[in-house]
Write a structure and sequence with these properties.
single chain; about 500 residues; alpha+beta; OB fold (Dihydrolipoamide Acetyltransferase, E2P); BirA Bifunctional Protein, domain 2; eight-stranded mixed β-sheet; five-stranded mixed β-barrel; about 25% strand; disordered N terminus
């Protein structure tokens, strides 16, 4: 006898069988797609965790059939809802002969509503003794096998809906993501911040070093850009007197894909009047510690097997001191572009002809320091050349009042004492225009309306941007940004 074909033909045959079952149900007047609602009183986890409260009560639940064991006149199945699985005892005597015969034909993946009494089996498993069972949606596709199914990482990202069904740990990441964002909003509300929304389609995509996506607005017959940052509009609101504002939203950067970068990602930026980058450090450290304690249950967390201490005071280190410590190079004694490039040549640090002393300093930091910053560390006082929107340090105009927080060798946020001098800002924009002309496609362009806002007058302000996706990665121990994006950007599959 020939072996059964377990390939695509077999799957197609199973799908046809499901379609035939649906047709039979429809012919019998039992079309599941006609039903419009089911009273889902409670979810599985609530019943299991509070069994003593629900024992003996009749409850209404709903979920997807994930396992099914038919044993003559009585059967068991597990249904899956958002919070987990629960066992169901389905007996002919409780359900009736006709309904029980229909149940026996249901498939893994079908969505059902159940009503029944809560009890425990001899093995102490919380179970629903089903008294009513209704097919709410017929699954016409075959779910992967539990242990041999959706293991293909690429397919998990492309068919996230199946990943969420088959992999509970994946669903937990996204539930935690929602909790993290909700907790951030709560934290900022307690500090008197106002949440706002700003445009995604803009004329001038500024506020960060990145290439924008360009689109065309048909109604106005004008090209627009997708925003790469939230900064310039939020600062306009500081000028307008809102004093403490933030936005959590999508931004778009026309860059490559890797484990830490996706061309569209979630950014949170906040701005607080009458403070500086020191105030932003306090807020950041407090918020990160609070999130770890609430989401992870402790300020001592683990990422990729490495203990991360979010409870101790975060280390503070200037960029020049960090390079001196980790690379043995003292840029405080390097005053010219030529000297900086000579040092880069000696240490095999690649640079471009347009790069200035400050750019070289940043390249040294990226090459020799960044990946070594495992425990939470604030890197402060960046070169002015790489910080076009930041106030200069009064004690050293070659540096600016800026910091980045690094954890596990990754940048978690970027903060400034915001530049509020419109004359200085215009000069910085001009330098960025020159950099763009020299080949820097990520340079900012002059924003005349923003300059006008600064001329109206902006108070001293601290500002910061957080990559929400990287924060979620840290707090869920996810190894790639695609693991925390429900629908990451993927290269199209040609049929």
């Amino acid at each position: 006898m020939a072996a059964k074909n377990n390939g695509q033909n077999d799957i197609s045959e199973q799908r046809q069988i499901r379609r035939d079952k649906l047709a039979a149900l429809q012919e019998a007047g039992r079309d599941p797609f006609v039903l419009t609602k089911w009273d889902q009183e409670v979810r599985s986890a609530e019943v299991i965790e509070h069994y003593e409260e629900y024992e003996g009560k009749t409850l209404s639940l709903a979920g997807r059939i994930m396992s099914k064991r038919v044993m003559g006149k009585a059967s068991f199945m597990h249904i899956l809802d958002r919070d987990g699985r629960i066992q169901c005892f389905v007996a002919r005597d409780n359900l009736g002969v006709e309904e029980y015969q229909l149940f026996k034909k249901y498939d893994i993946g079908d969505i059902v509503g159940i009503r029944g009494e809560v009890f425990k089996t001899k093995t102490e498993e919380v179970t629903i003794r089903v008294e009513e069972l209704v097919l709410l949606s017929k699954s016409l596709q075959v779910l992967p096998e539990k242990f041999h199914g959706l293991q293909d990482i690429d397919m998990r990202y492309r068919q996230r809906y199946v990943d969420l069904i088959m992999n509970p740990e994946s669903k937990e990441v996204f539930i935690k993501r929602s909790r993290i964002i909700a907790e951030i909003r709560k934290f900022l509300a307690e500090r008197d911040f106002i949440e706002v929304e700003t445009p995604m389609l803009v004329d001038n995509a500024g506020g960060a070093a990145a290439r924008p996506f360009v689109t065309h607005y048909n109604s106005l017959d004008e090209d627009k850009k997708l925003r790469i940052s939230l900064e310039l509009y939020l600062k306009r609101l500081i000028v307008g007197g809102l004093e403490r504002v933030y936005e959590i939203g999508r931004v778009f950067r026309n860059e490559g894909l890797d484990p830490r970068h996706n061309p569209e990602f979630t950014l949170m930026e906040l701005y607080q009047a009458y403070t500086d980058y020191n105030g932003m450090m306090e807020l950041t450290e407090s918020m990160f510690r609070h999130l770890a304690e609430v989401i992870c249950g402790s300020a001592q967390i683990s990422y990729n097997g490495t203990p991360i201490d979010m409870g101790s005071p975060f280390r503070r280190l200037t960029m020049l001191d960090a390079i001196r410590e980790y690379a043995g190079v003292d840029f405080s004694e390097v005053t010219t572009e030529e000297e900086a490039k000579k040092l880069a040549d000696e240490h095999h640090v690649e640079y471009e002809a347009r790069h200035k002393r400050g750019d070289i300093i940043n390249l040294f930091f990226e090459e020799f320091v960044e990946e070594k910053l495992i425990q939470p560390t604030f890197i402060m006082d960046h070169p002015v050349e790489i910080s076009p929107l930041t106030k200069k340090k009064p004690s050293d105009p070659s540096l600016v009042e800026r910091f980045e927080l690094f954890i596990y060798g990754r940048e978690m946020c970027n903060a400034y004492s915001e530049l509020n001098d419109p004359i200085d800002q215009r000069e910085r924009f001009q330098a960025q225009e020159e950099a763009f002309a020299a080949g820097d496609e990520e340079a900012n362009h002059t924003d005349e309306d923003f300059l006008n806002a600064l001329e109206i007058g902006m108070p001293p302000t601290g500002g910061i941007g957080y990559g929400i996706d990287r924060l979620v990665m840290l707090l869920t121990d996810a190894q790639a940004i695609r693991d925390v994006l429900l629908f990451p950007t993927m290269k199209s599959v040609k049929e």
